Amino acid sequence: MNFNPWHHVEIGEECPNVVNAIIEIAKDSKTKYELDKKTGMLKLDRVLFSSVLYPENYGFIPKTLGEDHDPLDIVVVSQCSIVPMCMVKARVIGVMRMIDHGEGDDKIIAVAEDDMSVSGINDIGDLGKHFKMELQHFFEEYKALENKTVLVENFQDAATAKRILLESIDRYSKTFV
């Protein structure tokens, strides 16, 4: 049996407050990696067409299933770029509600639990207006030169993020268990 981090890494004992996040893309990267669902390997999806860089570390939460039929996405805020396929304890602080190709594609927003520089951030409002504008701008623009559109609806608080997370765990259980 192949090891697949989506199916074989535990979500974490403190879920939904703190989860294990698997990083696919390091902060400040132009490379779009994603988990190959069948093999569990990290594959190069593409180099971004636009001249933008991922503003934060990006990955997925194991044993979850989003509305887009992929593992639930997570943005992990840290002062550092975290290498792909690293497992990070991530404290859930909010969610960016997004529509991609007509489907819900929520991005859970979290902070790296073991990074003291972000230890005082407990809810999405603690990040400040500019951070949210930058994150929204990235996700609205990174596919623009591919003639694809993404709609960022809004940012919501930690309670909403945790509800979405628990729904994605339930969806995963009904699909794979």
Automatic annotation (TrEMBL):
EC number of this enzyme: 3.6.1.1
GO CC annotation terms, alphabetical: cytoplasm
Binding site for substrate: 32, 46, 58, 142
Keyword Aminoacyl-tRNA synthetase among record annotations: no
Domain of life: Bacteria
Subcellular location: Cytoplasm
Family matches, as InterPro entries: Pyrophosphatase (IPR008162), Pyrophosphatase_sf (IPR036649)
PANTHER family: INORGANIC PYROPHOSPHATASE (PTHR10286)
Protein's name in the database: Inorganic pyrophosphatase
Provenance organism: Chlorobaculum parvum (strain DSM 263 / NCIMB 8327)
